[in-house]
Amino acid sequence: MMQMTSRYRLGDLPGAEQSFRDGEAWFAVEGFRRRPGFVAQTHGNAALIAWLLGDDTEARRRVDHMLAAAREKDEPFDLVYAQVMAAVYFVMMAQYEHAAELASGGVALCDKYEIAQFAASSRAVLGRARLGMGLVDEARALLREAVERTLAGSVRVAITRYISWLAEAHFQAGSDDEALDAIEEALRITPVEPFLVPETLRLRGEARARLGRLDDAERDLSAALRMAEEMGAIRLVTRAAASLAALRRRHGGDDPGSRHSEAAE
To answer: What is the pTM of this model?
Structure first.
Protein backbone atom coordinates (compact mmCIF):
# COMPACT_ATOMS: atom_id res chain seq x y z
CA MET A 1 0.00 0.00 0.00
CA MET A 2 2.77 2.46 0.90
CA GLN A 3 4.75 1.57 -2.23
CA MET A 4 1.69 2.07 -4.41
CA THR A 5 0.75 5.40 -2.82
CA SER A 6 4.29 6.77 -2.93
CA ARG A 7 4.88 5.72 -6.54
CA TYR A 8 1.53 7.21 -7.55
CA ARG A 9 2.28 10.58 -5.98
CA LEU A 10 5.76 10.63 -7.53
CA GLY A 11 4.26 10.03 -10.97
CA ASP A 12 5.42 6.41 -11.41
CA LEU A 13 2.05 5.09 -12.56
CA PRO A 14 3.24 1.72 -13.95
CA GLY A 15 5.16 1.09 -10.72
CA ALA A 16 2.16 2.09 -8.62
CA GLU A 17 -0.11 -0.23 -10.59
CA GLN A 18 2.33 -3.10 -10.20
CA SER A 19 2.56 -2.49 -6.45
CA PHE A 20 -1.22 -2.71 -6.18
CA ARG A 21 -1.34 -5.93 -8.16
CA ASP A 22 1.50 -7.42 -6.12
CA GLY A 23 -0.35 -6.65 -2.91
CA GLU A 24 -3.92 -7.35 -3.95
CA ALA A 25 -4.12 -10.80 -2.34
CA TRP A 26 -2.96 -9.32 0.97
CA PHE A 27 -5.44 -6.45 0.75
CA ALA A 28 -8.22 -9.04 1.03
CA VAL A 29 -6.95 -10.38 4.37
CA GLU A 30 -9.38 -9.63 7.19
CA GLY A 31 -6.71 -8.03 9.39
CA PHE A 32 -5.96 -5.52 6.65
CA ARG A 33 -9.62 -4.81 5.92
CA ARG A 34 -10.30 -4.06 9.61
CA ARG A 35 -7.71 -1.27 9.78
CA PRO A 36 -9.41 2.16 9.68
CA GLY A 37 -9.30 3.63 6.18
CA PHE A 38 -6.97 1.03 4.68
CA VAL A 39 -9.38 -0.27 2.03
CA ALA A 40 -10.45 3.23 1.01
CA GLN A 41 -6.89 4.50 0.75
CA THR A 42 -5.67 1.48 -1.18
CA HIS A 43 -8.53 0.89 -3.59
CA GLY A 44 -9.40 4.57 -3.93
CA ASN A 45 -5.90 5.45 -5.09
CA ALA A 46 -5.70 2.29 -7.18
CA ALA A 47 -8.90 3.30 -8.97
CA LEU A 48 -7.42 6.67 -9.90
CA ILE A 49 -4.22 4.99 -11.08
CA ALA A 50 -6.19 2.62 -13.32
CA TRP A 51 -8.22 5.53 -14.69
CA LEU A 52 -5.08 7.51 -15.51
CA LEU A 53 -3.67 4.44 -17.26
CA GLY A 54 -6.85 4.19 -19.35
CA ASP A 55 -8.48 1.12 -17.74
CA ASP A 56 -12.05 2.21 -16.95
CA THR A 57 -13.30 -1.28 -16.15
CA GLU A 58 -10.65 -1.94 -13.54
CA ALA A 59 -11.00 1.55 -12.08
CA ARG A 60 -14.74 1.08 -11.55
CA ARG A 61 -14.22 -2.40 -10.06
CA ARG A 62 -11.91 -0.92 -7.45
CA VAL A 63 -14.33 1.90 -6.62
CA ASP A 64 -17.22 -0.54 -6.22
CA HIS A 65 -15.11 -2.80 -4.00
CA MET A 66 -14.10 0.13 -1.78
CA LEU A 67 -17.66 1.41 -1.35
CA ALA A 68 -19.03 -2.06 -0.65
CA ALA A 69 -16.35 -2.71 1.98
CA ALA A 70 -17.06 0.62 3.70
CA ARG A 71 -20.82 0.03 3.75
CA GLU A 72 -20.31 -3.46 5.14
CA LYS A 73 -18.05 -2.16 7.90
CA ASP A 74 -20.45 0.74 8.58
CA GLU A 75 -18.00 2.96 10.46
CA PRO A 76 -18.21 6.74 9.84
CA PHE A 77 -14.47 7.18 9.21
CA ASP A 78 -14.35 4.40 6.60
CA LEU A 79 -17.59 5.57 4.99
CA VAL A 80 -16.45 9.17 4.54
CA TYR A 81 -13.01 8.11 3.30
CA ALA A 82 -14.56 5.81 0.69
CA GLN A 83 -17.16 8.40 -0.35
CA VAL A 84 -14.54 11.11 -0.84
CA MET A 85 -12.25 8.84 -2.86
CA ALA A 86 -15.15 7.62 -4.99
CA ALA A 87 -16.33 11.20 -5.53
CA VAL A 88 -12.88 12.18 -6.85
CA TYR A 89 -13.09 9.29 -9.30
CA PHE A 90 -16.55 10.32 -10.51
CA VAL A 91 -15.37 13.92 -10.94
CA MET A 92 -12.58 12.63 -13.17
CA MET A 93 -15.20 10.67 -15.11
CA ALA A 94 -17.31 13.87 -15.43
CA GLN A 95 -20.19 12.12 -13.61
CA TYR A 96 -20.80 15.20 -11.52
CA GLU A 97 -24.22 14.44 -10.05
CA HIS A 98 -22.99 11.11 -8.68
CA ALA A 99 -19.83 12.76 -7.37
CA ALA A 100 -21.88 15.48 -5.67
CA GLU A 101 -24.14 12.92 -3.98
CA LEU A 102 -21.17 11.03 -2.54
CA ALA A 103 -19.31 14.19 -1.53
CA SER A 104 -22.41 15.66 0.14
CA GLY A 105 -22.67 12.49 2.19
CA GLY A 106 -19.03 12.90 3.13
CA VAL A 107 -19.53 16.49 4.26
CA ALA A 108 -22.53 15.44 6.38
CA LEU A 109 -20.56 12.63 8.05
CA CYS A 110 -17.60 14.92 8.73
CA ASP A 111 -19.84 17.51 10.35
CA LYS A 112 -21.85 15.00 12.37
CA TYR A 113 -18.90 12.99 13.71
CA GLU A 114 -16.29 15.80 13.67
CA ILE A 115 -14.00 13.95 11.27
CA ALA A 116 -11.50 16.73 10.72
CA GLN A 117 -9.27 14.72 8.37
CA PHE A 118 -11.83 14.84 5.55
CA ALA A 119 -13.68 18.08 6.32
CA ALA A 120 -11.64 19.92 3.68
CA SER A 121 -11.35 17.19 1.04
CA SER A 122 -15.07 16.39 1.09
CA ARG A 123 -15.85 20.07 0.50
CA ALA A 124 -13.22 20.32 -2.23
CA VAL A 125 -14.63 17.44 -4.24
CA LEU A 126 -18.19 18.67 -3.68
CA GLY A 127 -17.10 22.06 -4.98
CA ARG A 128 -15.57 20.53 -8.10
CA ALA A 129 -18.71 18.47 -8.67
CA ARG A 130 -20.89 21.58 -8.35
CA LEU A 131 -18.61 23.33 -10.83
CA GLY A 132 -19.18 20.52 -13.31
CA MET A 133 -22.91 21.01 -12.79
CA GLY A 134 -22.59 24.69 -13.69
CA LEU A 135 -23.03 26.06 -10.16
CA VAL A 136 -20.00 28.32 -10.33
CA ASP A 137 -20.62 30.60 -7.35
CA GLU A 138 -21.36 27.70 -5.00
CA ALA A 139 -18.32 25.86 -6.32
CA ARG A 140 -16.00 28.80 -5.70
CA ALA A 141 -17.25 29.19 -2.14
CA LEU A 142 -16.81 25.50 -1.34
CA LEU A 143 -13.36 25.34 -2.92
CA ARG A 144 -12.17 28.48 -1.14
CA GLU A 145 -13.33 26.99 2.16
CA ALA A 146 -11.63 23.68 1.39
CA VAL A 147 -8.32 25.36 0.58
CA GLU A 148 -8.51 27.52 3.72
CA ARG A 149 -9.26 24.47 5.89
CA THR A 150 -6.38 22.54 4.35
CA LEU A 151 -3.92 25.39 4.81
CA ALA A 152 -5.01 25.72 8.44
CA GLY A 153 -4.27 22.06 9.12
CA SER A 154 -1.07 20.05 9.30
CA VAL A 155 -1.78 17.72 6.34
CA ARG A 156 -1.63 19.18 2.84
CA VAL A 157 -1.98 16.04 0.77
CA ALA A 158 -3.53 16.85 -2.63
CA ILE A 159 -3.84 20.57 -1.92
CA THR A 160 -2.39 21.12 -5.40
CA ARG A 161 -5.54 19.48 -6.76
CA TYR A 162 -7.85 21.59 -4.62
CA ILE A 163 -6.20 24.87 -5.62
CA SER A 164 -6.23 23.78 -9.26
CA TRP A 165 -9.95 23.10 -8.96
CA LEU A 166 -10.39 26.58 -7.47
CA ALA A 167 -8.50 27.95 -10.47
CA GLU A 168 -10.95 26.15 -12.76
CA ALA A 169 -13.83 27.80 -10.88
CA HIS A 170 -12.23 31.23 -11.33
CA PHE A 171 -11.68 30.37 -14.99
CA GLN A 172 -15.36 29.49 -15.51
CA ALA A 173 -16.39 32.66 -13.69
CA GLY A 174 -14.32 34.68 -16.16
CA SER A 175 -11.78 35.72 -13.52
CA ASP A 176 -8.72 34.84 -15.57
CA ASP A 177 -6.23 36.75 -13.42
CA GLU A 178 -7.49 35.03 -10.27
CA ALA A 179 -7.31 31.69 -12.06
CA LEU A 180 -3.72 32.27 -13.06
CA ASP A 181 -2.73 33.37 -9.54
CA ALA A 182 -4.32 30.21 -8.10
CA ILE A 183 -2.53 27.98 -10.58
CA GLU A 184 0.82 29.58 -9.74
CA GLU A 185 0.14 28.86 -6.07
CA ALA A 186 -0.85 25.28 -6.89
CA LEU A 187 2.45 24.70 -8.69
CA ARG A 188 4.46 26.21 -5.81
CA ILE A 189 2.81 24.70 -2.81
CA THR A 190 3.70 20.98 -3.01
CA PRO A 191 6.56 20.33 -5.44
CA VAL A 192 6.91 16.78 -4.09
CA GLU A 193 3.63 15.67 -5.76
CA PRO A 194 4.44 15.63 -9.48
CA PHE A 195 1.48 13.37 -10.26
CA LEU A 196 -0.74 16.46 -10.20
CA VAL A 197 1.54 18.74 -12.23
CA PRO A 198 0.56 17.85 -15.85
CA GLU A 199 -3.07 18.82 -15.36
CA THR A 200 -2.12 21.97 -13.44
CA LEU A 201 0.26 23.00 -16.23
CA ARG A 202 -2.50 22.36 -18.75
CA LEU A 203 -4.83 24.65 -16.82
CA ARG A 204 -2.16 27.35 -16.69
CA GLY A 205 -1.70 27.02 -20.42
CA GLU A 206 -5.44 27.49 -20.95
CA ALA A 207 -5.47 30.56 -18.67
CA ARG A 208 -2.44 32.10 -20.38
CA ALA A 209 -4.01 31.54 -23.79
CA ARG A 210 -7.12 33.43 -22.70
CA LEU A 211 -4.91 36.27 -21.52
CA GLY A 212 -3.20 36.39 -24.92
CA ARG A 213 0.13 34.99 -23.68
CA LEU A 214 0.30 32.50 -26.51
CA ASP A 215 3.98 31.55 -26.36
CA ASP A 216 3.75 30.91 -22.63
CA ALA A 217 0.56 28.94 -23.17
CA GLU A 218 2.18 26.72 -25.77
CA ARG A 219 5.17 26.08 -23.52
CA ASP A 220 2.87 25.04 -20.65
CA LEU A 221 0.75 22.75 -22.80
CA SER A 222 3.81 21.17 -24.41
CA ALA A 223 5.36 20.59 -20.97
CA ALA A 224 2.10 19.09 -19.68
CA LEU A 225 2.00 16.74 -22.65
CA ARG A 226 5.62 15.62 -22.20
CA MET A 227 5.20 15.05 -18.49
CA ALA A 228 1.98 13.08 -18.95
CA GLU A 229 3.68 10.90 -21.56
CA GLU A 230 6.63 10.25 -19.24
CA MET A 231 4.20 9.19 -16.50
CA GLY A 232 2.21 6.97 -18.83
CA ALA A 233 -0.93 8.91 -17.87
CA ILE A 234 -3.00 8.23 -20.97
CA ARG A 235 -5.94 10.35 -19.79
CA LEU A 236 -3.71 13.37 -19.18
CA VAL A 237 -1.92 12.85 -22.50
CA THR A 238 -5.28 13.05 -24.24
CA ARG A 239 -6.28 16.22 -22.40
CA ALA A 240 -2.97 18.01 -22.92
CA ALA A 241 -2.77 17.05 -26.59
CA ALA A 242 -6.32 18.26 -27.19
CA SER A 243 -5.61 21.61 -25.50
CA LEU A 244 -2.40 22.10 -27.46
CA ALA A 245 -4.07 21.17 -30.74
CA ALA A 246 -6.91 23.60 -30.06
CA LEU A 247 -4.46 26.39 -29.29
CA ARG A 248 -2.59 25.86 -32.53
CA ARG A 249 -5.76 25.61 -34.57
CA ARG A 250 -6.94 28.94 -33.18
CA HIS A 251 -3.64 30.70 -33.69
CA GLY A 252 -2.05 28.87 -36.60
CA GLY A 253 0.60 26.18 -36.78
CA ASP A 254 0.73 22.41 -36.94
CA ASP A 255 -1.63 20.20 -35.00
CA PRO A 256 0.48 18.48 -32.30
CA GLY A 257 -2.32 16.23 -31.14
CA SER A 258 -2.62 14.01 -34.18
CA ARG A 259 0.50 12.00 -33.49
CA HIS A 260 -0.69 11.29 -29.93
CA SER A 261 -4.30 10.39 -30.59
CA GLU A 262 -3.81 6.75 -31.54
CA ALA A 263 -1.50 6.11 -28.59
CA ALA A 264 -3.95 7.81 -26.24
CA GLU A 265 -6.82 5.69 -27.47
So the answer is: 0.92
